[in-house]
Amino acid sequence: MSLRNTTKLRIAVVAVAALPLVAAGCGSDDDSASGSDSGSQSVAAVIKGLDNPFFQTMEDGIDAQADEAGVDVTVQAAQSITDTTGQAERLSALSQQDFGCYIVNPITGNNLVQGLAQVGAKDVPIVNIDQPIDADAAEAAGVDPATYVGTDNVQAGGLAGEHMAEVVGSGTVGIIGGLAGDVTSNDRVTGFTDAVEGTLDTLPVVAADWDRQKALTTATDLMTANPDIKGFFAANDDMGLGIARAVANAGKTGQVAVISVDGNEDAIKAVQAGDLEATVAQYPYAVGQLGVQACQAAMAGEDLPDTVTSPVALVTEDKAAGALEKFPEPFESFDNPLDALTD
């Protein structure tokens, strides 16, 4: 179902007083208003780098839900997907201002904890989306998020593994993860390896830092060292597209299956064209919408579930056209527990 069609206005629209732009910030068109005199009704969001289309789409979802609900939102993004320090600085600046709720999508489990401690000290609700905050670090800093909104990444990796086992049948596959030690990457890889265990042989996981060019180089090296390789799993679409290019360069498109996770528009188009075998769509647009909905409910005093699981769906060639038609919204219906709290 479309969040845009199911969410109703719960909080009053209020006048906004513009404050100075957070230094070097990038994000939505609302960035020129980095705070509000009516902080109890405004939302600040700090997300990962917009150099990755996944987080561009997440920002679009945040903005769309804020517009639909009449919520004033300020979005700040890191300069890149690895800009941990810059992202922390953006949150630190926003934490000094008067917002009624904060949405955070940290690059690592602990890079935003210091800034969140300042938010928590003011008893302002925090909604954690996409990348979990490290629980131990959060507890030590007195940070208690109102809810976590995100994909079940083990499930997403499992869908990829099940499909890989079905299309490959037997043989060896390579696994290319994101940043070494990253929770999201690890969960996707775990889901994949569990799903293919006993059916496919897996090479040791190689980290490509979520980067397309690094994944291309890594896949090229792995194909040289393992000429009989049957497929690759990539922990995100950007790396999956890099691997697909390496496979094409080797003249093996259609012979070496590439499956990735995210469901970005370019990846879905690559599935439709036959360059990718499949992508597991996890709808960053919906994650952004759900994050704002969670803030709406929190600011209205509602009790939130500990976790809100966003939808995932396997996109294969036969489903690509339908997925593109609905993009960036989910092409399959899902149950949204926040609807009842924001009606």
UniProtKB/TrEMBL annotation:
Gene3D superfamilies: 3.40.50.2300. The keyword Cytoplasm does not apply. GO terms for molecular function: carbohydrate binding. Residues 44-302 form the Periplasmic binding protein domain. Residues 1-23 form the signal peptide. Keywords: Signal. The keyword Manganese does not apply. PANTHER family: D-ALLOSE-BINDING PERIPLASMIC PROTEIN-RELATED. This is Ribose transport system substrate-binding protein/D-allose transport system substrate-binding protein.
